[in-house]
Amino acid sequence: MSGPEFLIHPDANAVAEAIAERLLTRLTELQQQHADRTINVGLTGGRIATRAYQRLAADGPGSEVDWSRVGLWWGDERFVAADSGDRNDRGALAALQPTLGLDESQIHRMPADDGVLALDDAAEVYAGEFGDTVLDICLLGVGPDGHIASVFPDHPSFERSLSATSDVIPVRDSPKPPPLRISLTHPAINRSAEVWFTVSGADKADAVGWATTGSKPVPAGQAHGTERTLWLLDEAAAAKLNH
Ligand SMILES: O=C(O)[C@H](O)[C@@H](O)[C@H](O)[C@H](O)COP(=O)(O)O
């Protein structure tokens, strides 16, 4: 594993564009290298990522990517009804599904709170679906507190994620609403070949600083890819970067 790489763009829009462009290039390369299998991508919620998905939806159809060989997973999900606007998967799929022609079998949504599964069972079901998946690319937004997925600092989810024996955990009392969530754990994230952090805005500068200097233990500081760890930032978020 090499050290983290930092790519700094002028603003949030430029970061979103860079993520979309880089995804198209990398997915094409990976499909050439691994003609026999699906390429698995872990999606994140958040504003930048959603903008990147919209860009991907526009540029994806004319690209060299074979969308029938891309598997979509989620790093975390809010445990609310499937049709709730709070779901992370809604924004992503609203953008991606209409133009990329994705089959349901390629879309690995985390279970919703639909009265069938309780939170703990829902996490277990997703762990079963995830199996021994190694994400080729895991996108991670970062909160101003340094959270990634639904793993929060100064919260039981952090210790639980770091020491998890499962790839997926239920999260209760999330400091960021809604309170019930499902999250990939650090072992699952850190098995990814590539982890791409997507971060913009001055309110993220401290979090980026803590994660990259280790000056405060935050979930983002403990996440990395086995082959590559990439920080895609805007200038404001990079203000306290250690590199
Ligand atoms: O589940 C959530 O509450 C969000 O998905 C959250 O974890 C988000 O990814 C980060 O807070 C970054 O969001 P922005 O890119 O919008 O700053």
From TrEMBL:
Hydrolysis of 6-phosphogluconolactone to 6-phosphogluconate. Its EC number is 3.1.1.31. This is 6-phosphogluconolactonase. The keyword Hydrolase applies. It comes from the Bacteria. It comes from Microlunatus elymi. The gene is pgl. It catalyses: 6-phospho-D-glucono-1,5-lactone + H2O = 6-phospho-D-gluconate + H(+). Residues 10-231 form the Glucosamine/galactosamine-6-phosphate isomerase domain. Pathway: Carbohydrate degradation; pentose phosphate pathway; D-ribulose 5-phosphate from D-glucose 6-phosphate (oxidative stage): step 2/3. Keywords: Hydrolase. GO terms for molecular function: 6-phosphogluconolactonase activity. It is an enzyme of class 3 (hydrolase). InterPro entries: 6-phosphogluconolactonase_DevB, 6PGL, Glc/Gal-6P_isomerase, NagB/RpiA_transferase-like. GO terms for biological process: carbohydrate metabolic process; pentose-phosphate shunt. The keyword Hydrolase applies.
